[in-house]
Amino acid sequence: MATLAELANQRTLLDEPTIDHLLRLTASWSLLSDLSFSDMLMMARVDDSANNAEDNFVVLGQMRPNNRSTLINDDLVGTTQRSIAWPLVRLSFESGTRIVGEAKIDDVADVIPVWCVPVRFSGRIVAIMVRLQGPLRGPASLYEQAYLSIFERLCSMVADSTFPYREQDVAGPGLPRVGDGIILIDGRGRVEFATPNATNALHRLGIYAPAEGRTLRELGLKVRVVERSLEFGMPAMEEIDQGHDVAILFHCVPLLEHAEVSGVVVLMRDVSDLRQLNRLVLNKEAAVREVHHRVKNNLQTISSLLRLQARRSDEPETRIALGEAERRVRSIAVVHEVLSREPGEEVVFDEIVRSLVLLVEDTVLALHPVEILVNGELGTLSTDLATPLAVALAELLTNAVEHAFTEFGGAANDHVGVVTLNLYQEDDHAIAEIRDNGRGLGRDFSLDLPTSLGLSIVRDIIRAQLRGTIEMTNVAYADGGGTFVRVSVPLNARL
């Protein structure tokens, strides 16, 4: 499905500023659809000049009301509508005025009331906003009459190019809608009427006095955004709290007439339950973050104990074994350190990789200078995958730095040790490739019969725990020599 911008660029002569204006309008016109209990279409002239065709229209947007059943079940966006079938749209284009009449719509038995509202931008008519009104349920109630009155005032603003607002949208996901509650305020700041839902919201804030004819401040409620909208003619939003249990969202939509503010529509939503849920989520996140922080601290304590024990040992093999264990514990602590900052079931693995590289550079004392390079990224991984994969990569990097360059001599040797870690995703697999330019693997090397505990741990983690594959091969001397390791782990495997 093409977007409004794509349709306008492909099918019309509208320029980018005009298209941006229409995008802002369609981002906010759910408010118009709900206020008028009607389906809405946005039509623009098709660029058929090259074919000398009749004046046809393309439907750039379509909106259905949230408080009334739709009249049009089909998706008309992108369709071409012949002007002969929409004479009121053609007349509105030609006259530049609002045209009210009736039209016959496909799949609708009766003729229906239609409003054609010109959309003006930079002094010219760029599109027509078509309102298709469904039947009302009996005589219009007081509140329905008020809604339709507000809709008519907003239509005048559309024709004057003062709606939509440049500052922000006034409708859309997450914003209050008409059914949540409306207060209409006149140009002097006094309440003209309030819907039952809006009155209930005021009761939640402790306001029980009749609102009509009084300002919100006289009612004992200070809502700065109402005063701001009246003064500057700009939409604004504010959340008013009453203790810890009540939160009401006020979204002010100014009504303009001849560039002067003639009133404000206040859309109200009781967001108390949502805010309470947010607090619960934040408390849970704080608890999870604290758990990861404590696990990290405990692992660091264990790491320190292992390091102290290694220093007290007189046996070189014991010191080496304890040092390797200490490094593995620290690599797990790295994951929990990241999770303590951003708790959840997923973690940005690239942050872990940076910490792992620093860990390897900090803990490995190589006789030969070695540089570790990281290319690519794995993005966000599940915590169940990130922890064992971090341990495995730490072991492989350490193994490359410690053992790949032992036959090249000391620092006086001109051979520069380089270990490269390439990370990427391919076919729902996380791929890690480690290459060094060292001495390569021995002639009798076999990953199934590893000679070191570290490679045994890596093999078991990759194959058994992560259900992945690992390959270790020598790099041809023509390509510089060294060792190449490829690890592939499925991203969706259940661990």
Q: Could you characterize the architecture of this molecule?
A:
Helix content is 38%, strand content 25%. A 6-stranded antiparallel sheet has the order 3-2-1-6-5-4, sandwiched between helices. It has a 5-stranded antiparallel sheet with strand order 8-7-11-10-9, with helices on both faces. It contains 12 helices and 18 strands. The chain has 4 domains: 4-159, Beta-Lactamase (2-Layer Sandwich); 178-270, Beta-Lactamase; 280-344; 346-495, Histidine kinase-like ATPase, C-terminal domain (Heat Shock Protein 90), CATH 3.30.565.10. α1 packs antiparallel against α2.
Main traits of this protein?
Beta-Lactamase, 4 domains, 495 residues, single chain, five-stranded antiparallel β-sheet, alpha+beta, 12 helices
